[in-house]
Design goal:
Blueprint: H1 2-47, H2 69-72, H3 74-77, H4 91-95, E1 99-101, E2 126-130, E3 144-146, E4 151-152
Antiparallel strand pairs: 1-2, 2-3, 3-4
């Protein structure tokens, strides 16, 4: 009985750390998925003269017939799991992806990208972003893929 009590205490102490490690892992895999989608986008851009795809930001469900990232980039992605954040247990199944596309970039040439006429620095232009703040390590932040190809959960449009 004492052994079971000790195991219960150890489990109670270790569970929060274990849970946080899983959350950090999910966030890291989400960022890796965004990087993979960035590679897929670059393959698309190579086939389309560097013109960003004109896509809807998202769709309500997979029955909607609109061009979105999970339909247009699917031939370039190779792995459909790239479109689903590991922390997302619902939205990707309903809509086809866990990520919003920055539709303001559609039709722009990558050599001359700007975001709403305000930002020309590609390291600050978001291309894809989590649809929700579902990362338990910091639910107020979402992961982003930026136009220069880097991924982060920090968004700095104008400031250093």
């Amino acid at each position: 009985m004492a052994v079971l009590g000790i195991l219960a205490v150890i489990t109670a102490i270790a569970w929060p750390a274990f849970s946080m490690a899983i959350a950090k892992s999910d966030s890291a895999r989400c960022i890796a998925n965004l990087r993979g989608l960035g590679v897929s986008l670059n393959l698309y851009l190579a086939d389309h003269d560097g013109i960003m795809p004109a896509l809807a930001a998202a769709r309500a469900d997979t029955t909607e017939d609109v061009p979105v990232i999970d339909t247009v980039l699917a031939p370039y992605a190779g792995n459909p799991s790239l479109f689903r954040c590991p922390a997302d247990d619902r939205i990707a199944a309903e809509t086809g992806t866990s990520y919003f596309y920055n539709s303001a970039l559609g039709g722009q040439r990558t050599s001359n990208l700007n975001f709403l006429g305000l930002v020309a620095d590609t390291s600050r232009i978001p291309v894809l972003v989590d649809k929700e703040g579902w990362h338990r390590i910091n639910p107020t932040r979402v992961n982003h893929l930026f136009a220069d190809g880097h991924s982060s959960n920090e968004f700095r449009l104008f400031s250093e």
